[in-house]
Design brief:
Helix content: over 70%
CATH architecture: Up-down Bundle
Number of strands: 0
Structural class: mainly alpha
Number of domains: 1
Protein name: Major facilitator superfamily (MFS) profile domain-containing protein
Largest sheet: none
Pfam family, one: MFS_1
CATH topology: Growth Hormone, Chain: A
Order of helices and strands: HHHHHHHHHHHHHHHHHHH
InterPro entries: MFS (IPR011701), MFS_dom (IPR020846), MFS_trans_sf (IPR036259)
Membrane topology: Multi-pass membrane protein
Strand content: under 5%
Distance between the termini: 61 Å
Radius of gyration: 26 Å
Organism: Dentipellis fragilis
Oligomer: single chain
């Protein structure tokens, strides 16, 4: 009995050691996988994000430099009294909005390294030729074609990022490239301040040189994009064979192997999904303030009592603060895998900023309100786009949803162009911003509630019918309606 009990004890100890050893090996494998995944993400980030951020910086700079040109003398030279400037700012958004869905469909049919540089060349040429504009009518025509050419870039890059990264990691990446818009706002002020001093060179006004030089830079970068832009993980030359396989498998697992091929039914899935329109409402509510900030911040600061030159320079800090907050919020949104609460929080902070702008007359307080408004509203755009794209199942539906959210949402830019018409306090403009931000908060609450309800229903369905990942191919073409797909809240 003594020897048998001793042998049993030894067997138990040996078994315990074996279990402990296997647990340690499993933990080590998990740690190795996580480390390898992080290394691959860093590699993707270094090869993709700086370049697409530069492209979007140029895009936002070219569409919003009209605000800097206005206070640099364009308003006087082209006789932009009354609502003329507002109309010139607004006309951009009409072709811009309607070109976005067709552009993302073409991006799916063509290679990104062909389509995106091509639209850049088009708008870069338009931007450069705007230096020859010397009438109000010419300005309207130029802004129309600028919007038509530029429309595909923002939804195109947002969709492009979704083809490389799983859903849980997209907010930070969209935030990094979107932060280029805030840098463009700051950079535009510095550039305009310097370029204004070229007044008279070559027979052009300073504001005409703003258009000319920024347009030439866009064309040059577009030419380089044909060479340096990567298409898809499957063809990425900067990844090894094993790294490409890892990324492809990671994306398949993230989407539960949903369809990636082109089929018009996936387009209609996006068009007839009510959640798409709720996402559009959320996006429009924060985009109207973003465009208002870009188009009118120099003018608002000037009306606070500063000179034109100082207004150009003082327009920089609000955008820098917005840039930093965009990246910080994007990182934490990915870490927590939460989207809605960050959108609501940002909209609320921006609402406080506009309340300050509405109620305060002192230049210092008004300027602080502008900074708070930027810090709140800019981060919401990146998180919202990651939310909309990540909750649309299947490649084509995701591309169409992103394009619809950005395209229809950008119609809000027309509103942004017409509401700042009552200087120096701009009560109508600031009051309208407050209304749009409140709409975003309400629509976000509704969307979070719907996603929660649908996720619960899917969990109950899977438990009742024994549906698990082994059956994922059965639901391949259902998009996010698949019972295995879970919405991020």
């Amino acid at each position: 009995m003594g020897s048998s009990s001793q042998s049993l004890e030894k067997a138990d100890i040996g078994s315990t050691h074996e279990h402990a050893s296997s647990d340690l090996k499993a933990e080590s494998l998990v740690e190795t996988d996580v480390a390898e995944e992080r290394r691959i993400f860093r590699k993707l980030d270094w090869h993709l994000l700086p370049f697409v951020s530069l492209l979007y910086l140029l895009s936002f700079l070219d569409r919003s430099n009209i605000g800097n040109a206005k206070i640099a003398g364009m308003s006087t030279d082209l006789n932009l009294g009354g609502l003329r400037y507002n109309i010139a700012a607004a006309i951009f958004f009409i072709p811009y909005c309607f070109s976005e869905v067709p552009s993302n469909v073409l991006l799916k049919l063509m290679r990104p390294s062909i389509w995106i540089p091509s639209i850049m060349v088009a708008w870069g040429i338009v931007m450069t030729l705007m230096c020859l504009v010397n009438t109000y009518k010419g300005l309207l025509i130029a802004r129309f074609f600028l919007g038509l050419a530029e429309g595909g870039l923002f939804p195109g890059i947002t969709y492009y990022i979704s083809l490389w990264y799983p859903r849980r990691t997209q907010a930070k990446r969209v935030a990094i490239f979107f932060s280029a818009a805030t840098i463009a706002g700051a950079f535009g002020g510095i550039l305009a301040y310097g370029i204004e001093h070229m007044e008279g060179i070559g027979g052009l006004h300073g504001w005409q040189w703003i258009f000319c030089l920024e347009g030439i830079v866009t064309v040059v970068v577009a030419g380089l994009s044909y060479i340096f832009m990567h298409d898809y993980p499957e063809t990425a030359t900067f990844l090894s064979v094993s790294e490409r396989q890892h990324v492809i498998q990671m994306l398949k697992d993230d989407s539960n192997n949903l369809a990636t091929h082109f089929d018009m039914k996936f387009l209609w899935q996006a068009v007839f999904d009510y959640k798409t329109y709720l996402q559009i409402t959320v996006y429009m509510g924060v985009l109207v303030p973003v465009y208002a900030v870009a188009l009118f911040t120099p003018s608002i600061i000037k009306e606070l009592g500063y000179s034109s030159a100082r207004a150009q320079l003082l327009s920089i800090p609000p955008f820098v603060c917005g840039c930093l907050m965009t990246i910080v919020v994007g990182i934490y949104s990915d870490k927590t895998n939460i989207r809605g609460p960050f959108i609501m929080g940002g909209a609320f902070v921006s609402l406080i900023g506009y309340i300050v702008l509405y109620t305060q007359r002192a230049p210092g307080a008004g300027y602080a309100g502008a900074i708070i408004a930027c810090m709140g509203v800019y981060p919401t755009i990146a998180v919202n786009l990651a939310w909309a794209g990540g909750n649309a199942g299947g490649d084509l539906k995701r591309g169409v949803v992103i394009a619809m959210v950005i395209g229809i949402g950008n119609l809000g830019g027309i509103c942004s162009s017409f509401i700042y018409y009552d200087p120096p306090l701009y009560h109508h403009g600031h009051g309208t911003m407050m209304g749009w931000l409140a709409l975003t908060i309400i629509a976000t609450c509704v969307l979070m509630w719907r996603y929660h309800v649908i996720n619960k229903q899917k969990e109950e369905l899977c438990a009742r019918d024994g549906i698990d990942l082994s059956r994922k191919d059965e639901f391949r073409e259902m998009g996010d309606a698949s019972p295995l797909f879970r919405y991020v809240i």
